[in-house]
Amino acid sequence: MLHLTVVDSATHHPIPCRVHLKNAEGLPQKADDLPFFHDHLVCPGQTSIELSAGTYSYEIERGPEYRPVAGTVRLGSGQDYHLEHALRRLVDLPGRNWYPGDLHVHRPTEHIEQLMRAEDLYVAPVITWWNKKSLWNERQIPPDPLLVFDCTRYAHLMAGEDERNGGAFMYFNRPVPLEIAHADKEWPSPMTFLESKGEDTWIDIEKPFWWDVPLALALGFGDSIGLANNHMCRSSMYESEAWGKPRDTERLPPPRGNGFWSQEVYYHVLNCGFRIPPSAGSASGVLPNPLGYNRVYVYVRGEFSHEKWWEALRAGRCFVTNGPLLLARAAGELPGHVFQSESAFEIPVTAELTGNDPVPAIEIVQNGTVTHTIPFEEWARTGTLGKVQFERSGWFLARAITARTNTFRFASSAPYYVEVGDAPRRVSRTSAAFFRDWVRERASRVELADPAQRAEVLHYHERAVAYWEGLVKRANAD
Question: CATH assignment of 323-426, given 3.40.718.10, 2.60.40.10, 3.40.50.2300, 1.10.260.40?
Answer without folding.
Answer: 2.60.40.10
